[in-house]
Design brief:
heterodimer, A: alpha+beta, seven-stranded antiparallel beta sheet, about 30% helix, elongated, B: mainly alpha
């Protein structure tokens, strides 16, 4: 755009002048409504809808016999009475299939299962999870990080996985990794430092139920 | 047509008016600055989360989409051939789309509403229809809000529905590019982050294939709608048409994002829907282009008709200047031999330069207008 000089530039400058009797709070009154509309959209998106979402809590209790499927290849059996936080029951897939993440809470403990393509061993997957965990700077993650040496865990049908402690500032838990064919599974169990033995046993039992689809067990 | 008609056309369309971003007495200026600032802050936080791990994926996505952005920028500049928008204005539109609409508005609204759909209707519904019932609201309105702000930041520049069409397209381009880069970054964590470049580039490829028919197209339609809705000195308010265009953009976006749900997971149907939606999207955006471009062409004719009357350009050149691609094509092909066709191409570009200088001077004679005329004369075969 060429730089304007002379009379025409002066006319255009004057056209942009905001007369004092058209100002409110120092602003051009004609711009208040459109600015207000955009602020309204911003407020709805950033505060109102998230606030409504925060206030809506939905319990989805697990009943005996419920099986949660994670992605096309993995499933687990939550303990009856647990609350399904995210995930879909086996046999009730939506048009998009089964999501690759499922989580339940039980007795203050959160049990999350993530399934995705992975080529490697459970120990390598656990190392990858540790590397990711240490590399990410996630706000509000309570400082959780994988600690300790990996140990071997076994599910109900005898598949071996690798597990390690998962320590945070306000809680503790365990991360386990399995690999079924070319599907990797990360199980993240997080809860308070002290949980009743019965809850610990039930959660350990859930870990045993993580298995590939079609295993028949 | 007379000099008075020329001056009236320039005044009506705002062609040649400069755009000054710094307007402390304009409330839209502060909303723009705060929106973009907040968006940049959110984006910086997002990048900071994964940069130590996923820098290679982020870099690869950013490089690919930077090239993609240049291509679409060039295309959108090409179709803005009549009363051209100032560079600062289209940059402002791109920046709003890329930072404010994406990170300040859409991210927060989409996340919360998607979560709410999951709680109220179950995760299967959320997966199938959530995006289709979320993105049209926060993404389309987020981008359209950029057109609204710029309409009031540059009321003497954004005058016609076609101006809204172009500004909307640039808002959409900014949104598309920054969203695509973030998709590339998000995909890096797939497969537990074990193949970040592979998973990221796979997503980049998918976005490259489908990007041309999404945000830019929807926002161009919605941008024209915003100008019809608000009304300007050059475009009387048309409430129905404005609302209709904005809702059309939202509907197109919603259908696109709900393809899997609408097809009930049937891959063949999904592909069919994609093809039909791309064709419908292009048909609609071309129709909106033709609906909105007419006043711009009329303005070009009004500005350059006195030049044709005085013999600076030929009537054929006037038709090509104020016509569509067919007229320009026929004009260029009218030259015999490559050199003649090239000369005609140069004449047309030089005539555009003259039109821009006439607009910049408000239709009056100026040394720059004289110079642009002399350039045309120099290029006369």
């Amino acid at each position: 755009m060429p730089i304007m000089t002379g009379l025409h530039a002066e006319e255009r400058w004057r056209a942009n002048w905001v007369p004092v009797d058209r100002r409110r709070l120092g602003m051009d009154r004609r711009t208040l409504v459109p600015a207000g509309l955009v602020v309204l959209l911003f407020v709805v998106a950033v505060w109102i809808v998230p606030a409504i979402n925060d206030r809506v809590s939905v319990d989805d209790p697990i009943e005996a016999g419920d099986v949660i499927q994670v992605g096309p290849d993995v499933r687990f059996v939550p303990v009856a009475g647990a609350n399904l936080l995210t995930g879909v029951r086996q046999g009730r897939p939506g048009p998009a299939g089964y999501p690759g993440t499922a989580a339940v809470s039980y007795g203050g403990v959160t049990f999350e299962v993530v399934a995705d393509t992975y080529r490697g061993t459970p120990a390598q997957l656990l190392a990858q999870i540790k590397k990711t965990n240490e590399g990410l700077r996630v706000p509000d993650d309570a400082g959780f990080h994988v600690t300790g040496d990996p140990v071997t865990v076994t599910n109900g049908r005898g598949d071996q996985g690798a597990a390690a402690d998962f320590e945070g500032t306000n809680g503790t838990g365990l991360v386990a990794a399995f690999v079924f064919g070319e599907t990797g599974v990360e199980v993240e169990i997080v809860g308070p430092r002290e949980v009743p033995d019965s809850v610990a046993r039930q959660v350990a039992g859930m870990l045993q139920t993580v298995e590939p689809i079609g295993s028949g067990s | 047509m007379t000099i008075a008609t020329r001056e009236a056309a320039i005044a009506r369309t705002g062609w040649g008016n400069p755009f000054h971003f710094w307007q402390p007495r304009n409330a839209c200026f502060w909303v723009y600055v705060l929106g973009v600032g907040y968006g940049v802050w959110v984006l910086a936080g997002t990048i900071n989360q994964g940069i130590r791990l996923y820098a290679p994926a982020l870099t690869a996505s950013a490089v690919v989409f930077a090239v993609y952005a240049v291509l679409f920028w060039w295309f959108t500049e090409r179709i803005d051939r009549y009363s051209k928008q100032p560079l600062a204005l289209v940059v402002a539109a791109f920046v709003w789309g890329g930072f404010a609409a994406t990170w300040a508005i859409a991210l927060a609204g989409n996340s919360a509403l998607l979560d709410l759909y999951g709680k109220l209707f179950g995760q299967s519904f959320q997966q199938a229809f959530g995006a289709g019932l979320t993105a049209p609201i926060f993404e389309e309105l987020g981008k359209a809000s950029g057109v609204l702000l710029l309409l009031f930041l540059a009321p003497r520049v954004v005058r016609t529905a076609y101006d809204g069409f172009i500004v909307g397209a640039f808002c959409g381009l900014g949104f598309e590019i920054l969203e695509d880069i973030s998709y590339g970054l998000n995909s890096a964590s797939a497969e537990f982050g074990s193949d970040q470049l592979g998973t990221s580039l796979h997503t980049v490829g998918l976005r490259l294939l489908t990007g041309f028919s999404s945000h830019i197209l929807y926002s161009a339609i919605a941008g024209a709608g915003v100008v019809y809705l608000a009304g300007t000195p050059a475009q009387p308010r048309r409430l129905g048409r404005g609302l209709g265009l904005i809702l059309t953009a939202m509907l197109l976006h919603g259908l696109w994002d709900a393809n899997v749900g609408l097809a009930d997971g049937n891959g063949t149907l999904v592909l069919l829907f994609i093809i039909v939606e791309i064709l419908a999207g292009f048909a609609i955006v071309i129709a909106v282009f033709h609906l909105t471009v007419r006043p711009e062409r009329e303005a070009m004719r009004a500005v350059m008709a006195p030049e044709a009357d005085s013999g600076v350009i030929t009537p054929e050149e006037l038709d090509a200047l104020s016509g569509g691609w067919r007229q320009r094509y026929h004009y260029r092909k009218g030259g015999h031999g490559r050199a003649a066709r090239r000369a005609r191409h140069h004449r047309l570009e030089a005539a555009h330069d003259l039109a821009d200088q006439l607009a910049a001077s408000g239709g009056r004679e100026s040394p720059r207008v004289d110079f642009a005329r002399s350039e045309l004369e120099r290029l006369t075969p």
